[in-house]
Write a structure and sequence with these properties.
4 copies of one chain form a homotetramer. With 306 residues, chain A is α/β, with parallel strands linked by helices. The first copy, chain A, is 35% helix and 27% strand. In chain A, strand 5, helix 4 (123-134) and strand 6 form a beta-alpha-beta unit. The A-D interface holds A 22, 25-26, 35-42, 44-45, 47-48, 51-61, 64-65, 76 and D 22, 25-26, 35-42, 44-45, 47-48, 51-61, 64-65, 76.
Chain lengths: 306, 306, 306, 306
């Protein structure tokens, strides 16, 4: 399995050539640093000097005086690729060095390559596959990896490679080594779409790309396994789902998105699971879309979502 | 203070005489028992024999065969008061004894008498007072009791008695004894509308009427004090509120109602508090309305809300 | 095409044998008639005489005295099929005749046979197909009929017959005659899942089964074509979708379900279309599920949904 | 009545002195113009030159190339008042003239003076009064004007002048002349909080400040009178409310905010009215808050709400 040639899937062209050309001139700049007067001005004057037109600018400061500063700027710039190196140099000189800023510059035309991890349930996976195919999610799905083979046929129908990497109860690290070989250099993001295996710290340290998980409760309520049964036992009147970045602490990573729906006494734990599935897929899809549109900045255990 | 004559407030007539007359012919029967075939039929044939017309019937069984049975029946019966004793006798003979049922028969015209406990914040209190005044809440507010005097003027503007019973940090039981004297025989329900004092087990055992509390989080998340700050610290994307019956276990009583709203990174803990206040008043008002319309059946730590 | 043998699709067994056996003992009785005392009692005593256990009972009267009466009763009865004829006779004698009631008795095990009409967009269709496959929708999808061939492969992947019946701009009645031949005797419900052809009055009169349509606006706002563009032009802050029974008056049939989501100034008409698609599939799926679980009673241009 | 001395109400100090001092250093700049590269840069470099720190920046372009440009910038500037004239001069020279921009510069400390027009219903009015008193709405309520006297006592309890200006069915213009005399120079905004009189074109042209109205339906559904009865007649499953700027065309002005809630067959038209009242007050309060925080830009019949 480790010799499987991962071919970068060309994918169904989800946008027209015109749309693609338009996208090639759109870029995004994410910045975060300690807040000080002048950052917005410094960024916008660089862009102005390059003749770029700011399409969308979002900015957040945690406090009017002092605090942390976050900015996302989406701009239109003809021949972005050709000018990119020069632009990055300017950002380093005028933003990174003077303001101590972390930054990231991306092209809207450069789709994130995503691996989806699943186990047996299909609702989150299928929603991602459908939306990618319809052009709603601007991502390339490089592969789907599962510890079960149940969903192979569904995935392959979409023309996406499905790789079955079974869990070995005696040596879990073997599974993770195989996963890491498949992923290395091939993906920009891993999405755990109801993947029912614990991710080890070693995996997190080695994989080198962020992971987004969907937890089937309204965190921090009902951390851990069996949240729908716990919700039923507690007699709650709403259930929810939470998408978060994966960190070493289970269900404790920075929350990206949450949503909730009403339930009542007539709903069994199984019915909560069914209703919750709709919330899960909605929440996960939004989180993935926002991440892949470079809308999220992480700050400690928080996220700023522009 | 303990000699304060609690006069049953006649109240602003929130419904016309015609509406009141109509209400006097409407009654509600709540039943719960182990599920067995024939209960619905037994209830409806009693009502049919009395010439009552069923206006609304809600029924819930926890399982098609076996399990627990719950029913709320609202019916129209001319001269209900005159026929009440005879009807109760029939219910005892044909429902209580054969089915081992607990039941409760109430007249829609008989409003619940409610005491509201508050501390310093006004949003839940004002919403209750105002809805009672405009006839949305079919209750009589017998008194408002507070450990602070801040809200006295607001309460009295609505023509409701306000009693200041300060907390004595050395002897908390003194405050509760005073409260109990004020309440005894005068109220059917106590509403804790952001009352920031712990209710003792002794009080709960002696008071003899149910208490509804509003907790300013989406339970079981953020149990205890300071839930908005905790929510800010965790970086959640939604906040909520929970109305529940008060039991000896803090924030662990049967949940009646919950709701939630979206928040984002721009919201400070103080802003969460402000936004949350809107959810709190909405959730508490619903819970009080449902209780006072005899819509809630308690079953262990759960509620059935019809 | 008219000779196509429509074989009743056995379908993926979406529920276990145990669940199916359980379903075979569950039946539903829908009743509507002028309101008079005694109907609930008459129904429940019939059921009690047969040894049936009422699992769920919903009842609505438009007025406490007089008005229209509606009731849905779900009950558990061993050997329902064997007792059905006798039960129907009792209903006729004790309910239909004395109360002038319309009624309908169905077995929960008898799934509705559904035809889905589509054009080119897939979101509503795929949600229905997928929920049927995973056992959330208790229906059999007999066929998908489209005036385009775009969605053939997707439909057949689910093992469902897809029939392409092109629209003939010169003679529209030819298309409808073909559709009617395919449908006759084979389906209990037609779902228009974003079907972009007007249904003629002749078709409605001949087809003999109800049709449910999804309209992509919050009716009665934006009746007719292009509702998302109209919504953009008006500058609304929410968009919605409406599922309704089809009648001779376009977009004027009885509303079954509606929902809405927030939008803002950044959303183009195309983005409204994308966001609205999520509401459409949610609303249509609910309407179909409720219809097929016998939860809907029609009354003039209104629906009672239990 | 026309001689009534309108004293600028000092009001309950809803924010502490510290908060007020903080506010005095916060200003907001709204800009709209045809989109061209360099505007963001021009604005931020002016602010940077003054040593201002941008607290929040929102920007919207209707198209990446061409289209209309909108920007709201909230910034912190010590001694804003002293520097204001000079800042305005720079804006005129570097933004207004070169970009053909409309702009507005306001101090966060300068509260908008608001007149509320009401008739007999209190729900929208009271919500505004409560929130203003609690410091949630950063406005001064200069007066409440009503064509009825019903709400006088409630308004005066809050220390707000209440002026009864009866409608004269023979000469409506007399009422409006009186209103205009009361308003002239005293208010920055008029809020129609369920004011049941048509505003004449003459009034709109003379009053010189914007008007916000709450319409009790989800516009453009149910334009005109009696929307709840119309909603009941149509059998909708959700009802809503719409806050909009008032223009000469009834219910056709630019929409600021909308919201909706679920209803069902059990709700009478009166119950729709009651449930809708909660949506109305929520929607109107948000619209007023956004307007008074300078978050709204009007563009033709649309609003950009930052």
């Amino acid at each position: 399995m480790t010799t499987l040639p991962i071919i970068h899937r060309p994918g169904t062209p989800s946008t027209s050539n015109a749309a693609l050309l338009k996208k090639q001139t759109i870029a995004r700049l994410l910045i975060q640093c300690p807040d000080r007067p002048g950052i917005v001005s410094a960024v916008s004057s660089i862009l102005s000097d390059f003749g770029a037109n700011i399409v969308s600018l979002d900015q957040h400061s945690t406090d009017p005086t002092g605090g942390a500063f976050f900015q996302r700027t989406e701009f239109h710039l003809e021949h972005f690729s050709a000018k990119r190196a020069e632009l990055e140099e300017q950002i380093r000189a005028k933003i990174e060095t003077p303001y101590g800023a972390q930054w990231q510059l991306t092209s809207a035309a450069q789709r994130k390559r995503v691996a989806i991890f699943v186990s047996k349930t299909d609702h989150c996976l299928l929603d991602l596959l459908w939306r990618q195919r319809r052009g709603e999610l601007h991502i390339d799905i490089a592969m789907v990896i599962s510890n079960h083979s149940d969903l192979a046929e569904d995935v392959r129908y979409f023309g996406i490679p499905f790789v079955h990497v079974p869990a070995d109860s005696k040596d879990k690290s073997a599974m993770e080594r195989t996963q890491l070989e498949l992923l290395r250099g091939n993906v920009d993001l891993i999405v755990l779409a109801r993947y029912m295996q614990i991710i080890s710290d070693d995996f997190l340290q080695e994989v080198g790309v962020p992971l987004i998980n969907i937890h089937h409760s309204f965190l921090p309520a009902f951390i851990g396994a069996g949240p729908y049964q716990k919700a039923k036992d507690r007699g709650v009147k709403m259930i929810g789902a939470t998408a978060h970045y994966v960190t070493a602490d289970l269900d404790e990573g920075p929350i990206i998105e949450q949503d909730a729906i009403r339930v009542d006494h007539t709903d069994s734990a199984q019915e909560l699971m069914r209703k919750g599935a709709d919330v899960e897929r909605r929440v996960l899809t939004r989180a993935v879309a926002w991440h892949c549109d470079d809308r999220i900045l992480r700050h400690g255990n928080h996220t700023v979502v522009f």
